[in-house]
Design a protein that fits this description.
The complex is a heterodimer of chains A (about 290) and B (about 450). Chain A has about 290 residues and is an alpha+beta fold. Chain A contains ten helices and eight strands. In chain A, helix 2 packs antiparallel against helix 4. Chain B has about 450 residues and is an alpha/beta fold. Chain B contains 14 helices and 17 strands. The chains are: A alpha+beta (about 290), B alpha/beta (about 450). At the A-B interface, helix 5 of A face strand 16 and helix 14 of B.
């Protein structure tokens, strides 16, 4: 019994030693040089593998930075400027500050504003519903409410509001990776410049129909009247295809457009309540 | 032994309620709407403006490219407006709305019913006339006919197949046309033969229409290059690829067109429109629409002017019954439910089907039990359950390897699934997503 144990140990260890020698030479022969900076940058990245940078994952992003030897046009939205400056210092490059972005839902067509006019019974995803028809309300541009965006979010930054049937962005969690932007078949989610205290002003509508048709389909639709465009002192608002758009890079958050909008299509979020004016008492404090 | 295709297929109950109802002419509508995308391909360019006086048969929108088609007015009157209207899918499309006044036709159109069988026109002139008349495949796919008749260089057709299969349950518009316009159909087929320079044509008809088979067999004695081929009933035999396989045994290669095996398939209604366009100068402005449903008072086959609102047709068939759950454009297998009844009849609308609560709803979705029925049913030899999963997991490349693009969207898999899984929904999603990926690569 004792002797067979000895044989076993000798056999197994000799196999091990032979294999180790073969592997050693194989590793020498097939050695591929890899820039150590790739590992370093990958270490600095948040390892979310969300694809928000436009690459297949954090490793691919690190690889791309080292290969191009530049961080120009590359941004990790999750890690933000901290991560990017770390990556830049590893590469010995100058860090470029990027403005963080945050997602907004450009539809405010809750059930009360935009009643259902037909039923949808197919597979429960927005992508398929959009393929079948324009949606179960009269607005072909609006949110379908089947939460493809919520499913696409890796950061727990979106949830559906059961009352309105619309998705809500949790500002603290949103990193601006853009996964939801790609997931939305109606192109309703936009990445906007993140303002102090997560303040947001945006047109919560994508309806490009003429005013009357838009208003008929949804009570809070943008009718393209142009009042906000006239009111804005900073040229931040443009009307195109019967639809207003506020450029977040130009907007100074003055909130004047919000009060002139006749359909309440412009939304302000995370602002302190307004001082109530005598002539416009009910315009204050519109929440998404 | 009757011919059919071998692989897959299903047998939905026929429900041809209107098979013995002669085609009725429907009166003119008050307003007619012409959407500028009634065909596959580029949208047509609208030529008229508000206030223009229009005659029946006048060109109102011209073809926007090679794969596109002209659109003619089917009514006379004044253009009320050029506006966007909601189409049957709920999306807004540009359209011409015409207020109907009288019934004044273009002088060039021959409205008599005399049959003209001889023509001195040659191949290119025939195709030119078909192109001008805005004829598209009227079975539902609405592919412009002149494109089908102009094979790419190096390819030649040796056989014209006429699709009289009408494998969709409920629909009977082609069946009635074969019975009532058999003579015109025969002349139309000879024109198609001439346009393609082939030797012969075969009309494929499923044997649930024995009267049509007999009628056309009798007529075809006068035309020695036209044959009638009765087929065993099986869905989706009306699909081009399966009809070719059933009649000739030829198999269209994956990703290829029927012309790759030397055939061109045209629908019965298309062939009749070709006759009218070439011999009578009449553009595509009218078609037969089956309005049917088990709960409709008078299911009928109507000969209507394009642009007539669907609601008018349903009114004429006895009005919308109570408990209506769905109104479908097309047949129950491939048709799509409509979002409102104000939408106009378009070139490809072969039927309007009214379903009540009991018939019109989807059943609750359960888990896949791996029974393999969808694989047995798939006429393209695909694995629908796998394609659905891949599509659900967004594995588009893998889905393409599994030949998702070969799916003809016949719906046999969803029809046969005992767990009521939305197989076709996901496969369509995969197809459209992968189609977009391919377009982006270019």
């Amino acid at each position: 019994m004792g002797i067979s144990l000895v044989y076993t140990i000798i056999t197994v260890s000799s196999i091990g030693v032979t294999a180790a020698i073969i592997l050693y030479f194989a590793a020498r022969k097939f050695y591929v040089y890899e820039d150590p900076r790739i590992d370093e940058i990958e270490e600095a990245l948040p390892a979310a593998n969300c694809g928000g940078c436009g690459y297949a994952g954090c490793r691919a992003f690190a690889d791309a930075i080292v290969k191009d030897n530049s961080i120009e046009g590359k941004n990790c939205p999750v890690g933000g400027n901290d991560t990017m400056s770390k990556a830049a210092s590893i590469m010995g490059l100058e860090a470029v500050n990027q403005t963080p972005r945050i997602a907004v839902i450009r539809c405010n067509g809750a059930c009360e504003h935009r009643p259902n006019t037909r039923n949808y019974e197919g597979a429960s995803t927005c992508a398929i519903e959009a393929m079948h028809f324009g949606g179960s309300t009269d607005c072909q541009y609006g949110c379908l409410g089947l939460a493809d965006c919520v499913a696409s979010c890796d950061f727990n930054a979106l949830h559906m509001d059961s009352e309105t049937g619309l998705p809500v962005v949790s500002d603290e969690n949103c990193v601006g990776c853009g996964a939801c932007v790609k997931a939305c078949p109606k192109d309703l989610i936009e990445l906007r410049k993140q303002m102090p205290k997560y303040r947001k002003i945006f047109v919560a509508c994508r309806n490009e129909d003429k005013g009357a048709a838009a208003k008929k389909a949804c009570a809070v639709a943008c009718i393209g009247c142009g009042k906000c465009e006239k009111e804005c002192k900073y040229d931040a608002i443009v009307i195109k295809n019967n639809l207003a758009f506020i450029d977040s890079d130009k907007c100074k958050l003055c909130r004047k457009c919000v009060s002139v909008c006749p359909t309440n299509a412009i939304i302000e979020e995370n602002f302190p309540p307004r001082k109530i004016k005598a002539e416009e008492p009910e315009k204050a404090g519109i929440e998404a | 032994m009757l011919k059919t295709f071998k692989k897959g297929g299903v047998h939905p109950s026929h429900n041809k309620l209107t098979a013995q109802k002669p085609i009725e002419q429907l009166p003119l509508p008050k307003t007619a709407t012409f959407i500028n995308t009634q065909h596959i391909g580029a949208p047509s360019k609208i030529l008229v403006k508000r206030g223009d006086e229009i005659k029946v048969g006048q060109l109102i929108a011209e073809s926007g490219g090679f794969v596109s088609a002209n659109i003619h007015s089917s009514v006379s009157g004044k253009v009320a407006k050029i506006d966007s209207v909601i189409d049957s899918g709920g999306y807004r499309k540009d359209a011409v709305l015409i207020n109907v006044e009288g019934d004044v036709w273009e002088e060039s159109i021959d409205r008599s019913s005399t049959l003209i069988t001889e023509t001195s026109l040659d191949k290119t002139e025939i195709i030119k006339k078909i192109n001008k008349a805005g004829i598209v495949g009227m079975g539902g796919a609405t592919f412009p006919t002149h494109v089908k008749l102009s094979p790419p260089p190096g390819m030649k057709a040796d056989l014209v197949i006429i699709n009289g299969v009408e494998c969709e349950p409920y629909l009977t518009s082609d069946h009635r046309l074969m019975l009532e316009k058999g003579e015109e159909l025969m002349v139309g087929i000879t024109l198609l033969i001439k346009a393609l320079g082939t030797e012969r044509a075969i009309i494929g008809i499923e044997n649930n229409k024995p009267d049509a088979i007999e009628h056309l067999k009798a007529l075809s004695k006068k035309y020695k290059n036209i044959e009638v081929c009765p087929l065993k009933v099986k869905y989706p035999q009306g699909s081009e690829k399966h009809l070719i396989k059933a009649i000739t045994g030829r198999e269209v290669p994956s990703g290829g067109l029927p012309i790759a095996v030397g055939t061109v398939v045209n629908n019965v209604a298309t062939a009749i429109s070709v006759y009218e366009a070439v011999m009578k100068n009449k553009p595509l402005i009218e078609r037969v629409v089956t309005v049917t449903g088990k709960h409709l008072a008078q299911p009928s086959n109507f000969y209507v002017r394009l642009g007539t609102p669907v609601s008018t047709l349903i009114e004429a068939a006895g009005g919308l019954p109570e408990n209506t759950a769905k109104v479908i454009s097309g047949g129950p297998m491939m048709g799509r439910s409509m979002v409102n009844l104000g939408v106009p009849v378009t070139k490809g609308m072969s039927g309007i089907l009214v379903f009540d609560d009991a018939e019109g709803h989807r059943k609750p979705v359960k888990s896949c039990i791996r029974c393999g029925r969808c694989i047995v049913a798939c006429p393209m030899g695909l694995e629908p359950h796998l394609l659905m999963t891949l599509s659900e997991k967004q594995m588009w490349e893998k889905a393409e390897e599994e030949k998702i693009m070969n799916c003809i969207e016949c719906g046999s898999c969803s029809f046969t699934c005992p767990s009521n899984r939305p197989l076709l929904d996901y496969i369509r999603l995969g197809k459209s997503t992968f189609g977009a990926i391919i377009r982006n690569r270019k």
